[in-house]
Amino acid sequence: MNSALKELLDLLDLEQIELDIFRGRSPEERFQRVFGGQVAAQALVAAGRTVPSDRMVHSLHAYFIRPGDPAIPIVFNVERVRDGRSFTTRRVVAIQHGRAIFTMSASFHITEEGVSHQAVTMPSVPAPEALPTFHERMFSVVGDDPMWRDWLSKPRPVDSRYVNALPWEAQKDPSLISSENSVWFRYDADLPDDPLLHVVLAAYASDFTLVDTVLLAHGLAWGSSNVTGASLDHAMWFHRPFRADEWLLYAQESPWSGGARGLARGEMFTPSGELVVSVVQECMIRVSEDVTKP
Q1: Which terminus in the chain has less CB density within 10 A, N or C?
Q2: What tens digit of pLDDT does each residue of 94-110 get?
Q3: To the nearest 10°, the Cα dihedral for 142, 177, 278, 157?
Q4: 99-110 and 87-96 as β-strands: parallel, antiparallel, unpaired?
Q5: What is the pLDDT, as a whole number, of residue 31?
Q6: Which residues is 89 bridged to in the sheet?
Q7: Separation CA 192–CA 275 (nearest Å)
């Protein structure tokens, strides 16, 4: 287990400071704001710790309200909205500096039998082992550029393999622009069997590439002085059990953007083609008018 994954698992082990009140922290690296996937994953951990173990989360709906401050802890207040015979509902508010930075509603469900179908098929893509790592792809784009050197030297908790072009590649070569973006990912370590942990880790990874998918549709990329963006809201549906330490294909597309906002949606499949998670996110994308795209 690399140091980045170990640190992530530590971050997800929230401190309980009172009944239904939890405290989480951010990595010691001081980024400008807290990564959205982190606060969503921590909020889901907080909600899950107030729910009986026989009920698994099947959906969440979240709003990113304010940028999180990585220098101070985040307090998660859990409201027990409903405890029914089959479903349990929780609402979580993440607070910093006395103000809400994130809210989430999550629903949990007992295991039941029922009708079953899957109308969507997994895209036909190369196996993850046949694709270069994210570090290898990025190094081929930016080389030994000092601006990227330190960031690329750090381990990542998630092993991700891009099927389509990286935004930085499409920025250099407009023929690679696409509104579709498929990425294999897994946590490269043997993880505990706790089903909630695997769901939480999928929620964390789900926020890495959705905004990238909107950028990819326009040949834009992070690191450009004219591009700013952030997640606005996030919704996930968990259809069946899966493991985050085994490969999942995250097939994403951006059907629309406009008015400084963009919509992206994604589906996660196991290598055998089972649909396990559906995701939708709206993001903010702003491009300065005084700088043209390359």
Answers
A1: C
A2: 999 999 999 999 999 99
A3: 0
A4: antiparallel
A5: 66
A6: 82, 107
A7: 22
Within a 10 A sphere around the Cβ of 225, how many other Cβ atoms? 8
pLDDT at 30: 59
Please state, in angstroms and rounded to a whole number, the distance separating the CA atoms of residues 131 and 2: 20
Please answer whether residues 49 and 41 qualify as being in contact, where contact means their C-beta atoms are separated by less than 8 angstroms.
no
Q: How far is CA 44 from CA 118, 281, 288, in A?
A: 26, 17, 35
- Token pair listed for 226: 């004219």
Confidence band of 292 (pLDDT split at 50, 70, 90): very low
In 3-state terms, the chain is what percent helix, strand and coil (to 5)? 25, 35, 40
Whether the predicted pLDDT of 148 surpasses 90: no
Place of tokens 């992530």: 8
**Which residue from 75, 37, 70 is spatially nearest to 187, judged by alpha carbons?**
37
pTM of the model: 0.95
Q: Are 77 and 98 in contact (CB under 8 A)?
A: no
CA Rg value for the chain: 19
Task: For residue 249, list its beta bridge partners.
Answer: 184, 269
Annotated catalytic residues are 207, 231, 281
β 74-83/87-96 pair status: antiparallel
CA 274, distance to chain mean position in Å, is 20
Give every strand in the sheet of 87-96, ordered side by side: 15-18, 21-24, 74-83, 87-96, 99-110, 55-64, 227-238, 275-287, 261-269, 248-258, 180-186, 159-162
Percent of the chain's residues with pLDDT above 70: 97
Residue 233 has which token pair?
């809201």
- Residue at token pair 């295991």: 111
Examine the pLDDT at 286 and tell me if it is beyond 70. Answer: yes
